[in-house]
């Protein structure tokens, strides 16, 4: 691309992102998108006449190549792919062979890096997360660069600027897919429909295939269930809901929720 963009570093990228994601919703879309491509045309051809037709042509060309989700808007990783030099594109580390589509796997990551069980990821814990991620990708990175990347991530994703990340912030970083439970109808009419849905739901969260939900499996189920009612819950709130669910559903008090226990708890089978 352009030489000025070739010199772009993580901090410069953050400045561009914050400028064009004007409503801070995690995407560049609509008028923000047009403004971004107009800015790009100016950078690529200073002095050239900028027309609406040129803006739309450039937009169509780049969106077809970089809008991997094909939703007509740019996520932060997609924009990083477009304008960050490869050596600076630490956001590529969050790309996966398959999307993170299971809250159980997400909660495993959350529990590992929320080392002090505070219900939040501090800057130091985020730094550990990034360090491990670089090692997994066999990439060498200096301590100063790691600090810079940590600061950049906090600036991008710490929406309330309290110096820590909550569940929703980390879900944005890892591009967690849509809540699995949204596909099921609450008002499924027949008992057979409800039983079929229950079997699908339990199988989704029983990642270990033991016939019981435990640890991050319970966490993932609680997270998705509560977010049906409240779009955003905090780590401490999730822990509270988890305790309540176990108190009501863990009949034999083994710290797990068996399939028959959850069925009973959700009214899927008559009490003995």
Secondary structure blueprint with pairings:
Elements: H1 3-6, H2 10-20, E1 27-28, H3 31-44, H4 52-66, E2 74-75, H5 76-83, H6 103-113, E3 121-122, H7 123-136, H8 143-157, E4 164-165, H9 167-173, H10 191-205, E5 212-213, H11 216-227, H12 235-249, E6 257-258, H13 259-265
Antiparallel strand pairs: 1-2, 3-4, 5-6
Helix pairs in contact: 2-8, 3-4, 6-11, 7-8, 11-12
What this model shows, in words?
The chain is mainly alpha-helical. The protein folds into three domains: 3-87, EF-hand (Recoverin, domain 1, Orthogonal Bundle); 103-173, Orthogonal Bundle (Recoverin, domain 1), CATH 1.10.238.10; 180-265, Orthogonal Bundle (Recoverin, domain 1). It is 54% helix and 4% strand. The protein is built from 13 helices and six strands. It has a two-stranded antiparallel ribbon with strand order 1-2. Helix 3 crosses helix 4 and helix 6 (103-113) crosses helix 11. The N and C termini lie far apart (69 Å). The relative contact order is 0.09. The mean pLDDT is 82. GO terms for molecular function: calcium ion binding. This is Secretagogin. Residues 8-43, 101-136, 145-180, 193-228 form the EF-hand domain. InterPro entries: Calbindin_Ca-bind, EF-hand-dom_pair, EF_Hand_1_Ca_BS, EF_hand_dom, EFh_SCGN.
């Amino acid at each position: 691309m352009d030489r000025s963009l070739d010199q772009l570093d993580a901090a410069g990228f953050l400045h561009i992102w914050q400028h064009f994601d004007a409503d801070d919703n995690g995407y560049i879309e609509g008028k923000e998108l047009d403004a971004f491509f107009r800015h790009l045309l100016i950078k690529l051809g200073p002095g050239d006449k900028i027309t609406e037709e040129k803006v739309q042509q450039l937009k169509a060309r780049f969106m077809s190549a970089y809008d991997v989700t094909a939703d007509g808007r740019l996520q932060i990783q997609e924009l990083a792919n477009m304008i960050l030099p490869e050596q600076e594109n630490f956001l590529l580390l969050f790309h996966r062979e398959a999307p993170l589509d299971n809250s159980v796997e997400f909660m495993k990551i959350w529990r590992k890096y929320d080392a002090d069980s505070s219900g939040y990821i501090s800057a130091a814990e985020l730094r550990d997360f990034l360090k491990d991620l670089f090692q997994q990708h066999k990439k060498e990175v200096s301590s100063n660069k790691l600090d810079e990347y940590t600061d950049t991530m906090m600036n991008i994703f710490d929406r309330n600027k309290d110096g820590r990340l909550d569940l929703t912030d980390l879900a944005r970083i890892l591009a967690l897919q849509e809540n699995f439970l949204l596909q099921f109808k609450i008002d499924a009419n027949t008992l057979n429909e409800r039983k079929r849905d229950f079997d699908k739901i339990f199988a989704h969260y029983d990642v270990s295939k033991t016939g019981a939900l435990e640890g991050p499996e319970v966490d993932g189920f609680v997270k998705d269930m509560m977010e049906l009612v409240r779009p955003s819950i905090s780590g401490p709130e999730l822990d509270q809901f988890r305790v309540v669910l176990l108190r009501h559903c863990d009949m034999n008090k083994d710290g797990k929720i068996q399939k028959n226990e959850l069925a009973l708890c959700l009214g899927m089978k008559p009490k003995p």
